[in-house]
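Customer escalation, tier 2.

The customer says the design service returned an amino acid string that "doesn't look like it belongs to this structure." They asked us to rerun it and document both sides in this ticket. The original structure tokens are below, unchanged.
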């Protein structure tokens, strides 16, 4: 594995809205900054058709906002590099950021790796992934034009993406394990008013059925135990998220669920290691909150690097 001898002031792991903002703030403070990303810049914004709750835009397409943020993040010299991070090793005054092929060095690290969709874990889910099973309506919705799809879940993502799918599908059936939705009221109202949206309450998916591709789902009513087969051409799954934090568990900065815990300055219990956005233990996970986290962490990283420099000079290190 190649070692990079250059010591960065800050390495940001992940280039979603939080990471891009952290990169902007750190580099604007004249810190030598690198943003490591294993996918395309923007993270889950690239899977969002329209973002209507980010201040400054009445509505904007997710990939467009991603590119605008990348332009802002790199304008002061922050590097944007591909890298699949495997681990962070704390060497106190320097951190080793180990990727699949290189090891980078930094005085401070900002973790912005986000979260990913939970799987149902039912028979047929993995088998038909990409053949009718999807976790991204924006990515795959157009493949279901004039067809019937089911959406599993009752939160914001399930309801919002369910309504989005009605521009392609003839019918969208939302399957929820409870008798009422958890989504924001404005999203619920849109779904209830949409003639293409139907609901199956108090039910869970037991199996995804198919023959080469999805043809239906087997549903079980949690109150009476009755099962039924729902004919469908696709199944979009939105049943929660999991933090992308396994690579950082050796630092002991996560809680039991895997969310990274921080203080008000986004600092973890390891000095010089910060966490922001969806991977953090927080009450709200939105573009706006990730951007806010990123600005705080970028500024806090600057303060940390300056204090570290003073300490090293004081001890003639």
């Amino acid at each position: 594995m190649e070692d990079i001898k250059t010591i960065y002031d800050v390495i940001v792991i992940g280039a979603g809205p939080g990471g891009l903002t952290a990169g902007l703030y750190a580099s604007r403070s004249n810190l030598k900054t690198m943003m490591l990303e294993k996918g395309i810049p923007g993270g889950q914004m690239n899977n969002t058709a329209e973002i209507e709750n980010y201040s400054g835009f009445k509505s904007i397409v997710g990939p467009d906002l991603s590119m605008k943020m990348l332009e802002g993040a790199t304008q002061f010299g922050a590097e944007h590099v591909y890298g699949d991070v495997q681990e962070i090793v704390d060497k106190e005054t320097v951190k080793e950021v180990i990727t699949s092929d290189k090891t980078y060095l930094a005085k401070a690290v900002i973790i912005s790796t986000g979260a990913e969709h939970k799987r149902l874990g039912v028979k047929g889910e993995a088998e038909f992934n990409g053949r009718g099973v999807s976790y991204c309506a924006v990515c795959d919705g157009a493949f279901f034009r004039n067809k019937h799809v089911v959406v599993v879940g009752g939160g914001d993502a399930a309801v919002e993406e369910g309504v989005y799918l009605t521009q392609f599908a003839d019918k969208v059936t939302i399957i929820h394990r409870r008798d009422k939705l958890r989504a924001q009221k404005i999203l619920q109202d849109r779904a209830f008013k949409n003639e293409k949206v139907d609901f199956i309450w108090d039910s869970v998916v037991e199996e995804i059925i198919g023959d080469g591709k999805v043809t239906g789902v087997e549903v079980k009513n949690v109150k009476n135990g009755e099962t039924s087969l729902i004919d469908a051409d696709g199944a979009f799954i939105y049943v929660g998220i999991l933090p992308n934090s396994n690579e950082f568990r050796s630092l002991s900065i996560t809680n039991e669920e895997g969310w990274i815990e921080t203080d008000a300055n986004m600092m973890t219990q390891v000095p010089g290691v910060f966490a922001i956005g969806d991977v953090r233990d927080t009450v709200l996970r939105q573009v706006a909150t990730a951007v806010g986290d990123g600005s705080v962490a970028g500024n806090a990283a600057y303060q940390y690097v300056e204090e570290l420099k003073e300490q090293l000079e004081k001890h003639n290190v």
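Tier 2 assessment: The sequence is consistent with the input. The CA atoms of residues 167 and 208 lie 24 Å apart. The chain has a mean pLDDT of 94. Sent an explanation to the customer and offered a walkthrough call.
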